[in-house]
Amino acid sequence: MNADNATDSVYDGLVDQEDAHWAFGTGFHEPLAGVDRAVPDVDRADLTAYCLMLGDDALVLSQRLAEWCSRAPELEEDVALANIALDLLGQARLLLTRAGEVEGAGRDEDALAYLRDEREFRNVHLAEIECGPFAGGDFATTIARLLVFSSWKLAQYSRLRGSADPVLAAVAAKGLKELAYHRDHAAQWTVRLGDGTEESHRRMRAGLHRVWPFLDELFTAHPVELRLPGVAVDPAGLRSEVEDVLAEVCRAAGLELPDAAPAARVAGKAGRDGVHTEAMGYLLAEMQHLHRSLPGAKW
Amino acid sequence: MVTAPPGVTAREVAARVRDPELPVLTLADLGVLREVVERDGRVVVTITPTYSGCPAVEEMGADLRRALRRAGFAEVEVRTSLHPAWTTDWITEDGLRKLREAGIAPPSRLGPRAAGPVPLNLAPPSRRVPCPRCGSPRTTELSRFGATACKALRRCEDCAEPFEHVKEI
Questions:
Q1: CATH code (residue A149)
Q2: What pTM was estimated for this model as a whole?
Q3: Which range of residues forms the domain containing residue A134?
Q4: Would you call B51 and A87 a contact, using CB atoms and an 8 Å cutoff?
Q5: Which residues in chain B have Cβ-Cβ distances shorter than 8 Å to A166?
Q6: Angle formed at CA A53 by CA A48 and CA A55, multiple of 5 degrees
Q7: ipTM greater than 0.90, yes or no?
């Protein structure tokens, strides 16, 4: 830009010459640049699948929480849920990048997030089900899901810190601190709603009943998780720790722990096998349509 | 090509780059600048993200490359290191003071944390966060999550002003 046309546009003075200046715009780089990326001596297809499981859990719940943007009961909550979604998205970017790198087929985080079909997603059902703001729930149901999800993830990540995969260990150590804030947020809302008015108590109770059938899947090991000792965490070992936390929160909230039968599996298969609930297709359509309509689109 | 003025090291240039979201702090104040290595005219800067999803990391890298190039370091590489994970304990004493002077309540020091399960907090934090404007200890948390990932929103009961607090992590 020379001095003569310096006043052509009021925006010129705001815009730096390098597009990477805009934090939310273009210029996103390889998120694992410079991280120790040694691949442990395990089956690469299994490690790729495991990274996808972890990455998809975070990505899909992030997408669900982002649906609350501009729809939360108050502005502070709008900001809070968006912040939590952003933390999860950050974790998902690292995990999907790692999955693509271990796979070695040239797929980056965007290819994995936007160009896989439903059967290739390996997230647990709890992350994808409708819990509000649309049909299928309300704010209390969203809080119930966040409470269960973050309590479970916290237990999983605290063990994953010792993983033989240095990327998974680093993502877990960092994500753990974020999840601790997410869980506290959900737990404090559970107490406020459960121990609040008759109406808030009824909704919080209904929210817990909505998500409880999806608890069992969280502690059911997939063969991939069992084939990666030292790298992956066996989810069966997380159950008592997570149930203790949930019991403590419900006690403080004056809520009874739901006694719900586990959601049915399809021929023994569920989210980790790529078998999803009806909600998943709609979620992916919303999340993927822009990228698929305009491949390589940038803000 | 501009050459670096004698005596100015790459570390000094990098340490002066400001945080894009908390511009009162330099990257060194914030504790995200891990390492600056200068070898054969090539500079490798290692930074660490504050939060996994913090979009400012991209901009920090761009700002570092720009500042170092302007100072005459032609070849600059910015790396990200996730481990060990950033903690607010790495914000320098000078950084805490600058935050306070800018009307942002600084985080308190967490110190070493115990291993084992992360304790559940059912009550709002009892930690005292004095008002950065009037110094009153009577402040309440309005929202745990603020305008950026690293800040909470609070209000002073005495001067009634809302203020931001860099939350401990």
A1: 1.20.1260.10
A2: 0.89
A3: 41-293
A4: yes
A5: 83
A6: 90
A7: no
